[in-house]
Amino acid sequence: MAIKQETIRKATAYIASIVILAASLFLLYSNFNSGTSYNNAGYDFVNWLLLFGELVIAVYIAYKSLITKRYLPLALILIQTAVLFYFESLPNTGVQNNLFIDQLSLIMAMITGVIGSIICVYSFSYMRDFHKQHKEVPDRRGTFMFLLFAFLGAMFGLIFSNNLHWLYFFWEVTSLCSFALIGYTRSHEAVENAFKALTINLIGGLFFILAVLYLGMNGILTLDGISLAGKAVLLPVIAISIACMVKSAQLPFSSWLVGAGVAPTPVSALLHSSTMVNAGVYLLIRFAPIFQGTIQGTLISLIGGLTFVLASAICVSQSNAKKVLAYSTIANLGLIVACAGVGSYEAIWAAILLIIFHSLAKSLMFMTVGSVEHRIGSKDIEDMESLVTRMPRAALVMIIGIAGMFLAPFGMLISKWVTLKAFMDADPLLVGLVALGSGITVFFWAKWLGKLVAESRVHKKLKEKITGGEWAALGTLATLTICMCLLFPLVSTFLVEPFVLGVYGTTTQLSQDNVVIMMMMLVVILVLPLSMVYYGQKRRHMDPYACGVTTAEMRYEGSLGIDRELTVKNYYLENMFGEEKLMKYGIAFCSLLIAGMFALMVL
């Protein structure tokens, strides 16, 4: 019976993933040159259904908070629910254009549908191994897969919602799904971090619903209504932007995303690449024209810039691979937030491309780390030494992911060049932040890359017992990362540039030099991993010399005749880039900037 249930579960998960993938591709094919279109989608019935859903969410969170004696999330969800029902009691809250689709929502739908479905395929095989290695964790894979698909559904709803009430509902569903998935193992640490994520995101949700109430009282009930009102609604837009910075884990709200690393790897891949954090930057990009030329926009850019620098610096001091990926996500999102705060057409062009490249490479990195961890029993970067020799295929995929992070346009070339120009026009201080953060980014990725190809001792080749489902997901994402470099000009021409042109009336166009550079990057992203894996198999191993008498492999006789073990380890510079110290400063500075935004509105 167990085998039968697992077979049914697998078939259901695979079919659902294929349907989501196919629907996303069909949506792109049928709408990529259609401009913006709207749909009413039966307001009355759906609105009552969502209200009921809000009530269910509130009851569930209240129940979980009460039984664990956590009163802050309880208070937050009760206040939010009261505000929502008051909003619904307002006259003339009906909306005609509840749903919409344009080039930006198409891009986000492709990221959610393609990467999300790949993660779901990966999850089925991964979670089977996960429960074999963690027998103390209750096997609730059916619930786990349901939550993954619910997460994707909520993200699709958020992307296509024009109705602010609907948008808020799906926003809260993503918070609920993340809470349930982070606490999946039900360990003390998992429960604590799940409630931390829930509480911080409920704070953001409170800002969101208060802004929706303010807008509703002034007759604005839709996203396009906010765009038409422009800077006249800057106050509620700033409030929603706080919620966006919470969702995208910007300082001072970043701790929830780092704590989410206790969840199984597919959850991390989903949160960091195709759902949770992208929801925040998606809305910030929608509001970018309102920020342009305002002091509040400059402050948002400074928050993003500081987050980019400080989170990148913290990565230097981390050897836990999932923590490096978490802080690099926070840093990358900081750069996107900085672009949104600038609000110019060049910055938004760059921001959208940063989202695409980050989503692909980060999901690939998280899933590769998860598969490697199951084989070597560790997620410490130091334990990944000489992976090109021990697990060459996994190393190949991981190196492609690293190359996609700091060699592709996401890293040091096209997008940041455009970003630098936009930042120079807005605030030269931002240029210094981007330059500093970019240098640090290369440093910590190069350290990781060096560990994969370094070999201080003879390592035996491991059997890469990675399942077919995992290899299918990893191989597909690696191929997509390479294809994105190849198809970069087409994506820019047919999706990104039309959106920017429609919003600003002008856009950034790729020059021939940019295309040539991208072709060079495509060569690098292929040659680098392939050459490292090839030479990793052909290398000769030489006995190390450590200024002493070698007594055995990796041992030598040092001063006073003491027999010592030779160890090779990266620099982590904890005294300079320690997590606790830098987070303390980042939280203080960014909290002051947020306070300054609201103070300026009052004054």
Report on the structure:
With 603 residues, the chain is an all-alpha fold. The protein has a domain at 1-290. The protein contains 23 helices and five strands. The protein has helices at 2-31, 43-67, 71-88, 103-133, 141-160, 164-182, 188-217, 223-229, 234-247, 255-259, 265-273, 276-291, 295-316, 321-342, 345-376, 387-390, 392-406, 414-426, 428-453, 468-504, 512-538, 574-577, 579-602; strands at 37-39, 99-101, 549-552, 555-557, 563-565. The strands form two sheets. A three-stranded antiparallel β-sheet has the order 3-4-5, with no helix packed on it. The protein is globular, with a radius of gyration of 24 Å. 52% of the residues are buried.
Topology:
Blueprint: H1 2-31, E1 37-39, H2 43-67, H3 71-88, E2 99-101, H4 103-133, H5 141-160, H6 164-182, H7 188-217, H8 223-229, H9 234-247, H10 255-259, H11 265-273, H12 276-291, H13 295-316, H14 321-342, H15 345-376, H16 387-390, H17 392-406, H18 414-426, H19 428-453, H20 468-504, H21 512-538, E3 549-552, E4 555-557, E5 563-565, H22 574-577, H23 579-602
Antiparallel strand pairs: 1-2, 3-4, 4-5
Helix pairs in contact: 1-4, 2-3, 2-6, 3-7, 4-5, 4-11, 4-15, 4-20, 5-6, 6-7, 7-9, 9-12, 9-23, 11-15, 12-14, 12-15, 13-14, 13-19, 13-23, 14-15, 14-19, 15-17, 15-18, 15-20, 17-19, 17-20, 17-21, 18-19, 20-21
